[in-house]
Amino acid sequence: TCFSNSFLVKFAILTIVVSLGDYFLPLLGAKKYGTSKYGIWGAILGMVAGIIFFPPFGMILGIFIGAIVGELIAGKENSKALKAGLATFIGSMTAVLIKLSLSVVMAFYFFIYLFKG
User: Which parts of the chain span the membrane according to its record (predicted)?
Assistant: First the structure.
């Protein structure tokens, strides 16, 4: 193959980091906007349920709904619960955009090496 070992290792590390970000960025977004423990746990449980029952988009929807439900259970007002849901949604979309960007870069390098050699 025309890909060096260091190239493959670098892209493997980037892929792992971006994949982890896919799980943690929504939670960091929620925490930044003052989401409670219940909202965070709701987002985590919603993410897992979404992945299991409604792949592939269930993860994003599950995080959003889970954060809202968690905040409502914590006794927060509807507007604050919705704000928590939106914060997790923004974090999810940020993670998706980062993943998409990495995918484009990887495809670019793949085609460069494919036609180079």
Answer: 6-28, 40-69, 89-115
